[in-house]
Design brief:
Strand content: 35-45%
CATH class: Mainly Beta
Distance between the termini: 36 Å
Helix content: under 10%
CATH topology: OB fold (Dihydrolipoamide Acetyltransferase, E2P)
Number of strands: 6
Structural class: mainly beta
Order of helices and strands: EEEEHEE
Strand order of the largest sheet: 1-3-4-6-5
Number of helices: 1
CATH superfamily: Nucleic acid-binding proteins
Length: 140
């Protein structure tokens, strides 16, 4: 029997992403998504707050372009891990390890962060004015 661990979420960041590097220099970014839960009509709104972790190039992109309130789609897998805290007590963490991220809103000039340097010479970051507008006559 095959196993499947895949999750797709759409939500808003509750705070700016926390970007850092591991001891060996691997980029990692953490952020939390507020995801509204489907409710029957008339039921009170429920929201889940889900921890997201990204690695390597995706982590650099998230750290550079995402901000509090950004609406994003995240696709990845659920991971449950444990660790011992300072007192020696075992703690459990459930999080989503993102494989893909799609920004669902345009960046405004106030929230955009200028790129310090492209990751490689063949990658270029475009300013908002340089991003081509989508065509209205799409075939689908």
């Amino acid at each position: 029997m095959a196993n499947l661990n895949r999750i797709i979420l759409i939500g808003r960041l509750t705070a700016d992403p926390e970007a850092r590097y591991t001891v060996d220099g691997t980029p990692m970014t953490k952020f939390r998504l507020a995801v509204s839960r489907f409710q029957r009509e008339g039921a009170p709104q429920a929201t889940d707050f889900i921890n997201i972790v990204t690695w390597r190039r995706l982590a650099e992109i998230c750290g550079q372009y995402l901000r509090k309130g950004s609406l994003v789609l995240v696709e990845g897998r659920i991971q449950v891990r444990s660790f011992n805290d300072d007192t020696g007590q075992r703690k459990w963490v459930t999080e989503v390890v993102a494989r893909n991220m799609q920004m669902l809103e345009r960046l405004s000039k106030e929230t955009a962060v200028p790129a310090a340097e492209p990751a490689s010479s063949d990658e270029q970051v475009l300013d908002e004015e340089e991003v081509p507008e989508p065509e209205d006559d799409l075939p689908f």
